[in-house]
Amino acid sequence: MSIISKLTTLTLTLGMVAGASAAVFDPSKPVLKELKDGIYQYSQFFYNSLVVITDEGVIVTDPSGDVRSAQMMKEISKVTDKPVKKVIYSHDHFDHSRGGKIFIEQGAEFIAQENCTDLLSRDLEDKVAYPTTTYKDQMTVSLGGKAVDLHYYGKNDGNCMSIVHMPEDKVLVAVDWHLPQYLVSGGRLIDQDYVATLNTIKRVRKELEFDTIINGHTPVDSPELLKESEEFAQALFDAVWKGLQEGKSVDELKESIKLPKFSHWKGYEEYLPAHVERMAYSIWHGN
Ligand SMILES: [Zn+2]
């Protein structure tokens, strides 16, 4: 081996090591990233929140647990000394809604779609700050010149999802009815009305203007990735619908349906059958 090729090998190896270490992602690390003026994405433990910082206080979504909300507060206080005034629950599921009590002493208002109160009132672990404000179809949360619209578009992941949208800043918060290029496991689909989820995505893309998206769980998102989510849900619906019309059983459909266009999605091999099954029952039962 010549010296040059030895050096090349060494450089390549070092490059790979450096690349590998740069790619190591530590989900416990709190990250408050500014997306637009005063608008941040807070990410930790594979959960994301919208954080809006204004002269009159702070708006946050989804505390997602005591440890996470305490660290979120710590990160916020590095940027502003203003208190958290508004806490918006995207939906009721405890993995998103617990952990808000830290904001009670700051005088925060807790806001959710009205169907959320049932589950939120019966948290056996008593870790939810109960909503102080609810709405039915639509409301605008205003603070310090910023406006965050909440829309209820019906069922999708559960039955009290707020579509969170900042119309002037063109920011959308899409929690659990869109997860880019990611197929979750069957257990996490249990409350998903898949037909309604497809309808939600279609309606959001048609009616709301946005160029920036924060989803519930993964760090990077975009309008193109939301479009891809619609294409996946539509392709899944079409394939399952056709199979059901042909009289095939759900077990047969779980075996036979393949959507190779989406084979690069995380969890595709393992979890596509669970998504076929959930779509089949959503079509059949309407939930
Ligand atoms: Zn959920």
Number of helices: 8
**Helix content range:** 25-40%
Low-confidence runs: 1-21
Gyration radius (Cα, Å) is 21 Å
Mean pLDDT value: 93
SSE class = alpha/beta
Give a count of the beta strands, DSSP E runs of length 2 or more: 12
CATH-assigned homologous superfamily: Ribonuclease Z/Hydroxyacylglutathione hydrolase-like
Tell the overall outline: globular
Largest sheet: 7 strands, mixed
The level 1 CATH classification is Alpha Beta
- Using the coordinates shown, work out and report the CATH topology: Metallo-beta-lactamase, Chain A
Q: Ligands bound here?
A: zinc ion
* Domains, number: 1
Return the CATH architecture. Answer: 4-Layer Sandwich
Give me the secondary-structure topology.
Layout: H1 3-23, E1 31-36, E2 39-44, E3 47-54, E4 57-61, H2 66-77, E5 84-88, H3 94-97, E6 109-113, H4 117-120, E7 133-135, E8 138-143, E9 146-152, E10 162-166, E11 171-174, H5 194-207, E12 212-215, H6 223-245, H7 250-256, H8 268-285
Parallel strand pairs: 4-5, 5-6, 6-7, 11-12
Antiparallel strand pairs: 1-2, 2-3, 3-4, 8-9, 9-10, 10-11
The site of zinc ion has 5 residues, from loops.
Give a short synopsis of this structure.
The chain is of the alpha/beta class.
Tell me what the structure shows.
The radius of gyration is 21 Å and the shape is globular. The protein has a 7-stranded mixed beta sheet, covered by helices on one side. Helices cover 36% and strands 22% of the residues. It is built from 8 helices and 12 strands. The chain has a single domain, classed as Metallo-beta-lactamase, Chain A. It has helices at residues 3-23, 66-77, 94-97, 117-120, 194-207, 223-245, 250-256, 268-285, and strands at residues 31-36, 39-44, 47-54, 57-61, 84-88, 109-113, 133-135, 138-143, 146-152, 162-166, 171-174, 212-215. 37% of the residues are buried. The protein is an alpha/beta fold and 287 residues long. Helix 5 runs antiparallel to helix 6 (223-245) and helix 6 (223-245) crosses helix 8. Bound molecules: zinc ion. Zinc ion binds at residues 91, 93, 157-158, 176.
